[in-house]
Amino acid sequence: MATTGNKNINAKLVLLGDVGAGKSSLVLRFVKGQFVEFQESTIGAAFFSQTLAVNDATVKFEIWDTAGQERYHSLAPMYYRGAAAAIIVYDITNQASASFERAKKWVQELQAQGSESYFKPPIGNPNMVMALAGNKADLLDARKVTAEASTLDAQVYAQENGLFFMETSAKTASNVNDIFYEIAKRLPRVQPAPNPSGMVLMDRPTERTVTTSCCS
Amino acid sequence: MILILTKSVNRCFEKNPKFDMTPLLGGTDVVFSSLIHSFSWNPASFLHAYTCLPLAYATRQAAGAILQDVADSGVLFALLMCKYKVVSLVGAQKASLHPDDMLLLSNFVMSSESFRTSESFSPICLPRYNPMAFLYAYVHYFDVDTYLMLLTTSSDAFYHLKDCRIRIESVLVKSNVLSEVQRSILEGGMRVEDLPIDPLPRSSISHHLSQQRLLTDSHEGFSESVFGIGGPSGLWHFIYRSIYLDQYASSEFSPPISSPQQQKRLYRAYQKLYSSMHDKDIGPHKTQFRRDENYVLLCWVTQDFELYAAFDPLADKASAIKTCNRVCQWVKDVENEIFLQGASPFSW
């Protein structure tokens, strides 16, 4: 959850998306200003932090860059639990839009986890700021579908689902800082008034956390 | 493969023999190729023992103390490693880490570039510890060579482990452990040329690797003319495996075993020697002396240790045996620096 204090906002941010969409490349561009042509696959998840100043606040992002491989899917809730923001990344050059379809699945999962039901408290955050990033914009020529159509698809999809959409390129750095900046601007500035059904459950310590912290 | 997927993958094969596990293993090809490569250079793969970075006893103690501190706070295993060598490691009570699992762990971390860019948190399975379950590994590189692994059973423990790492890092920096580690990498380990020749006055003085190095350095002209082709009696290389500690120490490769091809050939010879010594049908044996066109190989197995030594093919048998005794004595003299003592989880 985003927490505020003197206009300092701590926000957990998670990157989700298909293998090879460019999640790590986006983060490395944003956090370290680096880009490598052949980025190795992420193992598990990598953690980064980066601070951004927006007009009225300083936002400290705690970023979880998750691995895209299928075998890590069941672990994803561990990383997006309590996240204030998510960037769902897909590869715009990907054939048959498989990468985009995978991105939609992630959006669905986050929405489902964010909604509350009688039986389960939400794992995700119903007020999560979600961004859709069509990455590898520098390779526009390689795109199989015509650029306008697929950009339009993504824009419409994003609008219908309450996300904002940007085409990014970790290679040229185009729109990379912008997407994080946009998220920072959209984060709720003030915590909603204490709301036992929503907030408290979100931060509830699980049994396992207790065992790790109670020892000497 | 179990490291990445746990043995549960067997269930998938039982249900569907045509089950294709390739997608599940995506992105791990480097882990496998590096592991396969390690079977042709890393003695840990056939000795089933691990090796330590040579360090002053007090330095290793300091590292062990802070690791023990975090292990008491709910961390299952804490390992501080430098490439494939252990700086220090501790385990929670009753938990022991098998050397084979340590090889898998260090290979996993070393081969994946992604661990170097930031701190990571990843599920991992240690087949010798529990082939059915995942542990969670927190991995952080302190510098290019040195990294910390904290293993836990809890998938929620990342922030706790991150705090542990910050504590460990500040202690390691304050007590100069990290700079000592860098120094040790530069200095290297035992060299056959440094094998003490005079067996007499040693019992009274405690020996240190670095002191001996100073000694040989000051006699450089002398040692070069006499031992230009390895150590005393034509000793080229040795591996000493301590049975109780599950650790081994080997000498640095030095001329004439200098090229990678020669090292690989010697490695294969050791491998054969090891398997012939542990052959279930005709062994186990106590000693073996073998001479071929490449080396004289001498192996000596006792209850406490195994010694594998390679000599010049023309080496004299009696003096080779004498040299082996000296090597054992030398290892005992410096054991506090080359081995991790006591605090090892195997003592639980």
UniProtKB/TrEMBL annotation, chain A:
Domain of life: Eukaryota
Protein's name according to its UniProt entry: Uncharacterized protein
Protein source organism: Pistacia integerrima
Automatic annotation (TrEMBL), chain B:
Superkingdom assignment: Eukaryota
Protein known as: Uncharacterized protein
Source organism of the structure: Pistacia integerrima
